[in-house]
Amino acid sequence: LNFSHFDVPLLIKSTIIMAILRCSIILLLLPILIQVQGESLPVVIWHGMGDSCCNPLSMGKIKEVIEGETNGYVHSLKIGLTAIDDTINGFLKPVDKQVEMVCKQIAEDPQLANGYNALGFSQGGQFLRAVAQRCPEPPMKNLVTMGAQHQGVFGIPGCPGESQELCNIMRELLYIGAYVDFVQSTLVQAQYWHDPIHYDEYLEKSQFIADINNERAVKNETYKENLAKLENLVLVKWADDITVEPRESGHFEFYSPGQDKEIVPLKESPMYQEDWIGLKTLDEAGKLTLLSIP
Contact, 187 vs 123, CB < 8 A? Predict the structure, then answer.
């Protein structure tokens, strides 16, 4: 791609390139987003941090590609009344509230009544997984997550999109302390901040990721039961991700408690071996796929 003849800011160029890359990958994944019998199911998509439901250079283009290839219905989730609200809420509306709102949107959409496939980008990936675990009706059939942070993050060195002011606020709040009550209750990214060094504090204070991953001593069995109902769970990791750390979180891989150097492979983790949320069940049924894409 040659942008030399256009006066386009670097950030916009990056957004365009990423949208084209994502659309290309989606074309490869489309067979998973279509029912086995060949009928197209509706698709629900959820954007990542700094983006919005309807940006014509990103989610708008992705929605257009999926609609064109499947000749079906695509619901691009919007949290708030406007696209601007949606972007801001991606930083400042509590995740549990967002998931609750999305469950309501999906339940009230008649075109999704018989089930749907779901595609989540970045934080939208773990948020859609929460929808699958908490709201089994109407049924989510297949879930594809791209560059998600299923085990949370322990570092956000980069920030995508055009929301640099919001990104700066996010970093300042995380610096104050992700588990300070005000920060944890206000900042979305703090709610999937996973500090392996202070693991006990993480388990106690995390409002979202520790819960949805069933990490606490008392397990929510419905989380496992509901996720295991998926026909396919496809986890796409960006192998060269520079937005979050560790990138292996996209495959449910993370640091073991007490250190932040060595990553524990998925199948060696207690989450998998003890089947806290149904990943082992899905894997043994041939319904779990892990992909790594540059």
Answer: no
Mean pLDDT, rounded, for 163-168: 69
Strands 263-264, 43-46: pairing kind? unpaired
State how far the Cα of 116 lies from the Cα of 75, in Å rounded to an integer: 10
Q: What backbone torsions phi and psi does residue 116 show, to the nearest 5 degrees?
A: -160, 160
The rounded distance, in Å, linking the Cα atoms of 232 and 230 is 5
Per-residue pLDDT tens over the stretch 173-190? 886 789 999 999 999 999
Question: What are the angstrom distances between the C-alpha of 193 and each of 7, 43, 62?
Answer: 37, 28, 28
Position 268, amino acid: E
Before 246, cis peptide (omega within 30)?
Answer: yes
In angstroms, the CA 86 to CA 47 distance is: 10
Inter-residue contact 274 to 213 (CB < 8 Å): no
Chain segment 238-284, per-residue pLDDT in tens: 888 877 789 999 999 999 999 989 999 999 999 999 999 999 999 99
**Amino acid letter, residue 143:** L
For residue 208, the 8-state DSSP code is S
Give the span between the Cα atoms of 64 and 66, in whole angstroms: 6
Provide the 8-state DSSP code for 234: E
User: What is the pTM for the complete model shown?
Assistant: 0.87
Positive or negative, the CA dihedral 108, 79, 35, 27 is positive
Q: What mean pLDDT comes out for the span 186-199?
A: 93
For residues 245 and 163, is the Cβ–Cβ distance under 8 A? no
d(CA 58, CA 21): 10
Task: Give the other-Cβ count within 10 Å of 84's Cβ.
Answer: 10
**How many residues make up the chain in this entry?**
294
The 74-76 sheet, strands edge to edge = 74-76, 43-46, 116-121, 140-146, 232-238, 288-293
| Count of C-beta atoms within a 10 Å radius of residue 201 | 13
